[in-house]
Design goal:
single chain; about 10% strand; about 160 residues; two-stranded parallel ribbon; 5 helices; mainly alpha
Length: about 160
């Protein structure tokens, strides 16, 4: 008799645990569905519509206001499908220009390039000593963020930094 009660008690516990797990999973999926519907809602579209301007529109706004501005050029634009050993690839952008880079955070990031086309203050090249020389890709350059939020911008608060990203 005790054995039968124990088996039915174990089955009851297993059924309750299964019900709790199923309820939790169902709730998580319901939250995911609501979140997905919110992301596709017209409210969010209207909220972010002012940031959906193209790089060309931003460029023309700067040009019409009289600023000397260029659009960033990505390195893969220079890689051809034909393997030519005599090709030269640029390592930086256009020098001494306001450069429009990208929009991933709701604003178009721009930077004023130095005399060699990197994202540094122009007078940085006049210094004889640097605490850090940063070499890298778009992460080092500070793609899509404001200058103060880049790695170089954070390090410049306390040290001399040359950014060759």
């Amino acid at each position: 008799m005790k054995n039968i009660k124990k088996k039915s008690y174990d089955k009851e516990i297993l059924k309750n645990i299964s019900l709790v797990i199923f309820s939790i999973l169902l709730a998580i999926y319901m939250i995911e569905i609501v979140y997905s519907l919110y992301n596709m809602s017209s409210y969010k579209h209207k909220k972010w519509a002012k940031y959906k301007r193209s790089k060309y529109e931003i460029y023309m706004d700067y040009k019409n206001s009289g600023k000397d501005v260029v659009v960033s050029i990505y390195p893969f634009s220079f890689v051809s499908t034909i393997n030519d050993e005599d090709e030269i690839y640029p390592l930086s952008g256009i020098s001494n220009k306001l450069t429009i880079f990208c929009n991933e955070s709701g604003y178009w990031s721009t930077y004023q390039s130095d005399r060699y086309g990197f994202n540094n203050p122009n007078e940085q090249w006049d210094k004889l000593h640097f605490d850090f020389v940063l070499v890298g890709d778009s992460f080092t350059l500070g793609a899509c963020v404001r200058e103060k939020d880049t790695i170089a911008g954070q390090l410049r608060n306390n040290s001399e930094v040359l950014n060759l990203g």
